[in-house]
Amino acid sequence: MAEEEAAVATEEEPEQTPEQTPELEAGDPGQAGLALVLLAPEHSHPSPTKYVGIAVFLAIVTALEVALYYITMPEWLVVVLLLVLATMKFAIVAGFFMHLKFDSPMLRRLFVTGLILAGVVYTIALFTLSVLV
Amino acid sequence: MQAAIGHAPHTPAPGDHDYAVTGIDSRKLGMWGFLASECLFFGALISSHLLYRSRAPEGVHIPHDVYDIPYTSVSSFVLLMSSLTMVLALAAIQRNDHRRLRIWLLATAFLGTLFIGGQVYEFTVFTHEGLNLSSSVAASSFFVLTGFHGVHVTVGILWLLSLVGVSLRGKLPAENHLQVEIAGLYWHFVDVVWILIFTVVYLVPNTH
Fold first, then answer.
1. Closest CA to A97 of B150, B17, B85
2. Which of A14, B65, B114, B151 lies 20 to 30 A from B34 at CA?
């Protein structure tokens, strides 16, 4: 019950008060630099309504993918379109649902490094083994 | 300076022990590092399947022969929607709405269980069609890839249910929303891996 009241109160005032900037000691560039890193801007996450909109879009893209499976088209075109749509879905989930678009660029670099490393290594391996040609 | 901070439910303070000099919580950084390594793990399994997906003895089915695309499409849709419920759970705890947090976490776990149930059914059908872990290299690579993904989903379900339990005991206050966020990162990753598996393994035509 108390939780529900707290939730209602929060919904009435969705905007959170920004936390106070800690006092920086004058003449201490190390601490000032650390505080600047720690207090780097965090952009607002999307609202629940926007999340639902994104999910609807992802569902439509999935339906398109399945439709491509049944449509008679040149095979290379089907493969290209399927990969483009899958990449789009991947990017949207990672960017919005995993908040990679809004979080620290360091997290983005970390994940993208793993992704690119995997992509390059296994693409080379599959080309070498003549799977992709 | 304050205006630039924006919506930061748990802005770290200098000296906060969970935060490295990067300004990112160590647990979150660790999870992203783990997910980056998982890209290589699943990349290896997907590549192996691409390499072996047509290799089967004469007269033995390859997985592509027995795929039920409409059925797997529904499963994929279920897992995709579980990502929505997961992110709504995180949004709920960030609003200090614990009732909705538990509802969305349970909904996510339910959708995940539905997906796993679908996978078990699919494996059963494939087994009746003569496909099993040792029937061909193609079947092995398929079962290992989708099986490992299923294990990841199962771990995710257990994780979500444990969060519901912690929340019910009142030990998951809004300021600990990072616990939900980290579980969410894992869950969404499992979803994006399935996005790739569904496309590359199921939908891309097998011509070799």
1. B85
2. B114
